[in-house]
């Protein structure tokens, strides 16, 4: 008999889709978009979410705890697994204190229940965790510099815009439920769409017009546009009323070398003028800023400048204007269920792997959950060395990931369809989504709330995270800030920073050093890794990996190296050689090569670093390339 349930996609994606689930039997499910959810265009989900139909009962699913010994991996009971883990934690706390326990939680699932487990480490006295993110912390830091908090741009605000500028954001492949909204605005309001990119993409094809800039020059272009607006008298007349440090900002712009910065962007003067004219003709402009432009050392400064540019174009007075990036998807999570750790050490996510042996107190145990940093973090070899320096490592996952293979204990987790009730926020829209349990997990896999409850009991802590999950469920359902729209879909009160806050003032940048520093070499190429429509971050289930990686190269760089299209080539960085196949892209400029992120070999070539805002500047990695 077919049974129906409500759920939502757990992926780290702005769309955060509500889904309807049909359970056909104990092993088979069918997923489709919830037609009652306002932002899924009549009820559809993308292929990434749809693949959960196969993934939920994939033969790759972990079903029993695994421990590594001298002979390799072997299955053990939950009782033994929990006892082993608890013993290692107790030994670490006894010898080094609570900061010796390293907790690495990623965004493999954005479900609220995934945040409850830290209560265990709070009750143990504290923990160490990464600071920042591999994703958007640098850009977010730039926005916070301007506002003092993370601004909110509601999707509904977009209907007031006359222009939408995708600034390094390939929305067609990574934000598909935005597209029907823009298509409708094109028809009804003749909204114009522009794109700034480093090569032709699905989004540049979707746009009315696009312009190519060099990687890492986004801040330089934003500064040049700000400078031109002020010098030409085209800046919004009342911009100073909203600005802090207006004089310092203008002085910084006046000191810029326009010719040098324009050369850095790769734009000629007529093309720059076309961009400038487009912005003036189509304001109010919504700037949809991407994640690539903030994966440089200048990323935070770039986003600070995008706020300044938006202000000079009329933001706050013109509805629809603003910078769209991300927001706090966990705003409604009841943090009181977790508490505040007595002590907490935060280590930069971009380069902790280089420093783990020097930390004091020493890291003795490490937990990895909802993440796969062995595949996703910069510097693959550095990560493996760091793991070797940690005495005991635990990974909780649904499959045997690259990170799990480096651990000592691997615990099988339930996936989102196998646990609940649960909740999900969004870093794009203003809805909370609720999910129900659809089926039991395979084998002896358990929800993380159960796993940590068992661990707490073994450690002598009074804690029931399954109960806490149900308390959270009741708190959110009964919150005066939350209103049910349909089954599993709730709205909550959220103020739009760009058009609903009347007293907003923004602090403008007065130090533009970061955006004027160009890293380049005549012999090396900047390595840029880009997102794919096929999978989220490193979760490549159902896609497969190419036998030979594709490396995209400009015509000029290929010609300079005697390389032809489809030639086998070798990329080299940090003593690591990667064989790939060259794909000549006539829409690229020279000085960089492109690979699709998410595959295990890409981060063998990237460099562990920390950018302002505790980001991971993946694109500050350089390689040499030769024909094989």
UniProtKB/TrEMBL annotation:
Class of the enzyme per the UniProt entry, highest EC level: oxidoreductase
Domain 4Fe-4S Mo/W bis-MGD-type: 2-60
Superkingdom as given in the UniProt entry: Bacteria
Matches recorded under PROSITE patterns: 4FE4S_MOW_BIS_MGD
EC number: 1.7.99.4
InterPro entries: Asp_de-COase-like_dom_sf (IPR009010), MoPterin_dinucl-bd_dom (IPR006657), Mopterin_OxRdtase (IPR006656), Mopterin_OxRdtase_4Fe-4S_dom (IPR006963), Prok_Mopterin_Oxidored (IPR050612)
Keyword terms of this UniProt record: Iron, Iron-sulfur, Metal-binding, Oxidoreductase
SMART domains in the cross-refs: Molybdop_Fe4S4
GO molecular function: iron-sulfur cluster binding; metal ion binding; molybdopterin cofactor binding; oxidoreductase activity
Annotated family: Belongs to the prokaryotic molybdopterin-containing oxidoreductase family.
Protein name: Nitrate reductase
Taxonomic lineage from the root: Bacteria, Thermotogati, Synergistota, Synergistia, Synergistales
